[in-house]
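User: Hi! I have a protein structure encoded as tokens and I'd like to know what sequence might fold into it. I'm fairly new to this, so please keep things simple.
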């Protein structure tokens, strides 16, 4: 299967001090009588999962995704393993562009290993507090190993997903929590008030996905699809390619119907990953959408501009969503003030701890959230679904949204599915573009508390 597995205990790495450049990391409140948990040992491992074809976005292409695992052991003798699907291209395109693909992945994995060494011997009461305590040093280490003073915060957060997930599982086990609802601290519950019985399953249509495949997805029942725009080339070349693709897509599926929208038409969800350098360029694309009759179907345009451009978008006549630019809760608030009217949250890319903080800010400002993917493995899909299942319904739809595109991109997806504790559960699989969530799903929390033998055997657990 052309995969290699490495298992390594983390070694001692000298740490430097630094800041994460944010003010939103404050201590978790509202937690009463939680156990003090001491981490006595840590370890890490990874697997390389090849992709079916080069996966294109942000003007680049990935060929494989590293699946990393982090093991934490408490002084009680409890061991838990958290998972992470790395995405160097998504989290920092500059790192991806300046290093070979393997090297970029190795750099992120080194940051994970550093974090695991850093928390050895530490005590914590909540995973949120643990994350807050290590981010400054981890960020400074990340800057050093990548050689980038401008390292994006998402690169660090992506590296910490497995560590954070293991901490949540340890926290749940130590405190006797058996469901996701029990595990979420009280201060974050207002942002997660729902228990949807349906989630729209969002596939991803990258640059290289043929239009016929998009049409086929609609025929299979998918109705809310994420379409990558911002194709490679100059700004003019990019715009021309994007207009041509929008025309082809609308011609192929514009007349399709769905029972999940008020007007019965398919909603369009475009993701530019910061490729549009100016507002005027995006407005030209929207004008083209009006010309071909596709404009009214645009539900979301995600992350159109480079985050450093700091463009006020309050006058753009479609719902603009922040994704990677909303690294933290503080960044999310800044984007909301700039006119962003939705936030794509990624418990599987920015850690569950940071995601809960982002959702809290968004909820307080009446900004809807939805869950986007990072082309993660089947178990991490369930972490994302646990959040999506509890977010308020997305405007214009009577259900929640969760993107999952691993089935489209991993060469060994069907093998990876066997690592899921409940691979054949009705709620674990998309049917006609929908995840159907029943009482069994909520009782089992998507299986996230059941440790997968495939990953635990990496640590002889």
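Assistant: Happy to help. Inverse folding works backwards from shape to sequence: for each of the 461 positions I chose a residue that suits the local structure. Here it is:
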């Amino acid at each position: 299967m052309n995969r290699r597995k490495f298992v390594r205990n983390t070694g001692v790495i000298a740490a430097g001090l630094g800041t994460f450049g944010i003010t939103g990391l404050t201590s978790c409140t509202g937690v009463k009588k939680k156990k003090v948990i001491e981490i006595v040992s840590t370890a890490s491992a990874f697997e390389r999962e090849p992709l079916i074809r080069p996966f294109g976005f942000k003007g680049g292409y990935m060929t494989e995704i590293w699946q990393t695992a982090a093991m934490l052991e408490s002084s009680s003798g409890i061991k838990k393993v958290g998972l992470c699907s790395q995405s160097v291209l998504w989290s920092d395109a500059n790192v991806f562009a300046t290093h070979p693909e393997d090297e970029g992945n190795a750099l992120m994995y080194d940051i994970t290993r550093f974090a695991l060494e850093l928390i050895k011997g530490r005590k914590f009461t909540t995973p949120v507090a643990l994350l807050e305590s290590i981010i400054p040093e981890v960020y400074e280490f990340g800057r050093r190993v990548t050689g980038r003073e401008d390292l994006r915060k998402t690169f660090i957060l992506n590296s910490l997903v497995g560590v954070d997930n293991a901490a949540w599982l340890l926290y749940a086990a130590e405190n006797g929590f058996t469901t996701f609802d029990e595990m979420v601290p009280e201060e974050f519950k207002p942002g997660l008030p729902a228990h949807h019985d349906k989630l729209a399953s969002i596939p991803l249509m990258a640059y290289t996905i043929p239009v016929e495949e998009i049409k086929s997805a609609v025929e299979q029942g998918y109705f809310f699809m994420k379409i990558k725009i911002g194709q490679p080339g100059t700004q003019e070349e990019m715009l021309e390619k994007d207009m041509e693709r929008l025309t082809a897509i609308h011609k192929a599926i514009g007349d399709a119907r769905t029972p999940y929208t008020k007007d019965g038409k398919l909603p369009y969800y475009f993701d530019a990953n910061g490729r549009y350098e100016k507002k005027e360029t995006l407005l030209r694309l929207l004008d083209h959408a009006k010309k071909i009759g596709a404009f009214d179907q645009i539900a979301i345009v995600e992350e159109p501009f480079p985050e450093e451009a700091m463009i006020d978008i309050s006058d753009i006549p479609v719902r603009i969503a922040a994704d990677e630019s909303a690294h933290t809760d503080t960044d999310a608030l800044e984007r909301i003030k700039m006119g962003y009217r939705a936030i794509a949250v990624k418990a599987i890319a920015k850690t569950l701890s940071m995601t809960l903080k982002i959702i809290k800010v968004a909820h307080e400002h009446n900004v809807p959230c939805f869950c986007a993917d990072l082309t993660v493995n089947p178990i991490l899909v369930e972490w994302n679904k646990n959040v999506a299942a509890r977010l308020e319904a997305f405007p214009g739809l009577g259900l929640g949204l969760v993107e999952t595109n691993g089935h489209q991109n991993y060469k060994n997806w069907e093998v990876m599915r066997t690592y899921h504790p409940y691979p054949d559960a009705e709620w674990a699989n998309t049917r006609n573009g929908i995840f159907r969530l029943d009482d069994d799903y909520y009782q089992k929390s998507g299986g996230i508390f059941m440790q997968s033998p495939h990953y635990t055997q990496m640590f002889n657990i």
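A useful reference point when you look it over: Residues 5-178 form a domain with the Enolase-like; domain 1 fold (CATH 3.30.390.10). Feel free to ask if any position seems puzzling.
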